[in-house]
Amino acid sequence: MTTLPKAELHVHLEGTLEPEDMMRFAARNGLELPWRSPDELRAAYAFTGLENFLSVYFQGCRVLRTRADFHDLTTAYLHRAAAQGVRRAEMLFGPQAFLDHGVPIDDQLGGITDAIDEARESRDIEGALLVSAHRHRTEADALELLDLVRPWRDRILGVGLGSAERGNPPSKFARYFAAARGEGYRTTCHAGEEGPASYVREALDVCQVERIDHGYAAAEVPDLVTRLAEEQVTLTMCPLSNLRLHVTDDLTEYPLKALMDAGVPVTVNSDDPSYFGGYVNENYAAVTDALGLTEAEVKTLARNSFTGSFAQPEELRGVL
Ligand code: ES4
Ligand code: ZN
């Protein structure tokens, strides 16, 4: 598992911020945090659900201020991922929180893309950037974000949509996804994490996204499962995240294997590894254990991660 080549398709860069680094960045930027030690911070990681998690996560985002912070965050993740056999990482990143704190977009994306370029050389890992809008904000904000990142168009592979799901259906962002598609971005949308299966349908029908982040709720709806299989829509599932946010309370009943058996291209990912107690391999291990996956099934998951990625076919030569 450790060295099995794989892609990670659903990881939020901000969610890779380890407690020690959060403390270090706060100190070097002269910022106060509500927690005085990494252990005190870890104690705050007993989440009741997505919104409760997001409030801690957005507090953590406050410490990231300089180009060096974004660079160091990205480097730390890419090095860890490479050590776990990740050859390609499609990383979600939400600039809006940092724009609120006055961090220029060029410092954010400059730090991240420098780290991507360095890790390609030093660790043989391909990092790709997916800019993610916050669904608790307005669609006008999301469209403004597209305008703001346009100078970085050639360094951004795609766009996504995250943050508080309930009450913020994908259809609220129909024009955002249409505009993104018009600019040639690849598209993915969080749906069916805490929200209902109908949000998965909306993401596909109204927003026409290519991939679904989570998609957990779809598993309960047989005709939707059939459709995901027929249309080969990749789901980027995140078992430890779903456990820690009480989307599921028992991984032995996690629908990953049932979806795989039904022909849906499912993948295993970490979401916010520093907050949810594991990087990608810990997520593979958790489902392998809980669901008794065979070696062949684990290999299928790894293969799905490449075929479900937004890589060009020629980029996958040598890994598939
Ligand atoms: C999320 Cl915006 C965002 N960041 C990290 N994890 C998430 N889960 C849902 N939305
Ligand atoms: Zn996510």
Supply the number of structural domains. Answer: 1
From the N-terminal CA to the C-terminal CA, the straight-line distance is: 16 Å
In the CATH hierarchy, the architecture is: Alpha-Beta Barrel
Q: What is the overall number of helices?
A: 15
If you consult CATH, what is the topology?
A: TIM Barrel
EC number: 3.5.4.2
Protein name: Adenine deaminase
Keywords: Hydrolase, Metal-binding, Nucleotide metabolism, Zinc
GO cellular component, one term: cytosol
What does this protein structure show overall?
This protein is α/β, with parallel strands linked by helices and 320 residues long. The protein has a single domain (6-309), classed as Metal-dependent hydrolases (TIM Barrel). Helices cover 47% and strands 14% of the residues. The protein is built from 15 helices and 8 strands. The site of 6-chloro-9H-purine (ES4) has 11 residues, from β3. This is Adenine deaminase. InterPro entries: A_deaminase_dom, ADE, Ado/ade_deaminase, Metal_Hydrolase. One of its GO terms (cellular component) is cytosol. The record marks 214 as: Important for catalytic activity.
